Amino acid sequence: MATVEEVLADTESRMGKSVEALKREFSTIRTGRASPALVENLMIDYYGVPTPLNQLASISVPEARVLMIQPWDKQSMKDVEKGILRSDLGLTPNNDGNVIRINIPALTEERRRDLVKLVGRKAEEANVAVRNIRRDSLETFRGMEKGKDISQDESRRAQTQLQQVTDSYIGQNGVQREQKEAEVMEV
Asked: How many domains, the chain?
């Protein structure tokens, strides 16, 4: 049987992973600046096998609003280009035979508002994930109390600690959300 400390440590670890997942999710949301994270996990049909772009090419940012993609296999240029066009990023690749350049257009006000809504949705999904982890841990504590593994007082203390941990991680998600929203709205 796990101790209260072990349950809390596991809970913190899982909540930390959900915060990291939100960070990764936010890195794929477009802002006015070029970022390799926008396209690195784009799935490209490489000889019939869906492969992430970052495994097929080097991705660099030569200028603030330009992404440069240099496939290691020149035969895959057309596939990379098709994959970028098919994505929901709304980006147009320019292929010069050696590299693919993508100009990142400035965002319109309407598109910025849509992205802020998307950021809000992603942050709320992360908060729901954190709350689900809290619920699992709460059930564990109640089960331990029922099974007489811990006293009612210990269970209450553990639940209070659990709520503090949960509030902390939801707060971290909120900070990330505010930063990303400010980044998206920045002209």
From this structure: 2
Residue 6 structure tokens: 């072990």
Q: Are 22 and 113 in the same domain?
A: yes
Q: Are residues 98 and 112 in the same domain?
A: no
Instruction: Say if residues 130 and 18 touch (Cβ distance below 8 Å).
Output: yes
Which tens digits make up the pLDDT trace of 111-146?
888 889 989 999 999 999 999 999 999 999 999 999
Record the tokens describing residue 53, joined without a space: 């772009």
Same domain? For 124 and 64 the reply is: no
Instruction: Round to whole Å and give the CA distance between 106 and 109.
Output: 10
Distance, in Å, from the CA atom of 148 to the CA atom of 109, rounded to the nearest integer, reads: 59
Residue 69 has pLDDT above 70, yes or no: yes
Q: What are the counts of helices (DSSP H) followed by strands (DSSP E) for the chain? A: 4, 6
Comparing 29-38, 79-88, 129-138, 164-173, which segment has the lowest mean pLDDT?
A: 29-38
In this structure, what CATH number is given to the domain that contains residue 50?
Answer: 3.30.1360.40
pTM of the complete model: 0.72
Structure tokens at 148: 């007489």
Residues 112, 97 share a domain: no
> What pLDDT band is residue 24 in, cutting at 50, 70 and 90?
confident
